[in-house]
Design brief:
Helix content: over 70%
Strand content: under 5%
Structural class: mainly alpha
Radius of gyration: 19 Å
Number of strands: 0
Largest sheet: none
CATH class of one domain: Mainly Alpha
CATH superfamily of one domain: Tetratricopeptide repeat domain
Amino acid sequence: MAICPMQPEERMILKRYLYAHGFILFFLLQQLAAQSLPVQSNGADKLNQVVALRNRGEYQQALDVLAPLVHSSGLSASDAGHAWVLLGSTYQDLGKYTEAQRAYQNGISILKAQAGGERGEAAALDDLGSLYRDMGQPEMSKKLRLKVLQFFLAIGDHSGTARAYNNLTAIALQQNKLDEARKDIVRAFDELKLAQQAGSQVSLDDQAAIDNNAGWLSFHDHDYRQAAKYYDLALQLWTHQHGSEHQLTGWGYVIRGRTHLALGETQPALDDVRTGLAIIERTVGANVPMYFSARLVYADVLSASGSLHEAETVRSATVRSLQAFRRTASSDYAISADAFR
């Protein structure tokens, strides 16, 4: 059964969520582990709690802790900067882009003023770049990601450099610059190997994100078997890192299902996409772009399975929801020049 072709608007929202996401908590975990002063323990404990909640996909609970925490007086300046960045990432995950942008910029301003805060600032800029990509501003995202890349290259951090190249891959894919994407993904794998050879700890999320983008490139080249291998690896890593109830795990099922569909394996495709949709809805809800993207994949799978009427119903409802989301979530994003200084 032929798959109904997506409209350009549908393809755009799907592509944004086929690529890697900017969930950069590894640096924060390292910083929290190094905390030793008693006066900072309460704030550090709460930030650890937030990281644990986010890793389990409990975003609203994380927000309930973070929202008052960023305004409390119990945080060191460094912890306050990281708390604002975590708040921005949590808002982003929940589709609240205006709030996310403000939180990121607050965090960047605080971290920029701290002596020795360059690494934390780089992680925050990377997350802000992720937000601009999700908002459909790839050039703004690329400027930030290039700045982050230069920082990690300068300090010889192979893990950070691998992440930066992978994020640039995601932007190139979004812009359909495939030659550029292929060069960047090779660099990402090379830097990942160098980091592992040096004994550096590389986050599972970073490894999964690289496999995810490599899978997309293989999918685009119609090498669906190779794409399936990369997507399987990404799903395994996300499940190991976050468990079964997390939006990234859910997304892993969706993209694997999409590959089953390309291979003509309709029932496994239906099983995977339905599983992924349910996980995404339970963790971040049904009013976020990731969910809309997954629903568009589901419509394709339904169409291929012969459920044409249901597929059209799902597709039409998803497009309406997407349009409503854009009207409410993409009003006016003021770009702060502070991030580019």
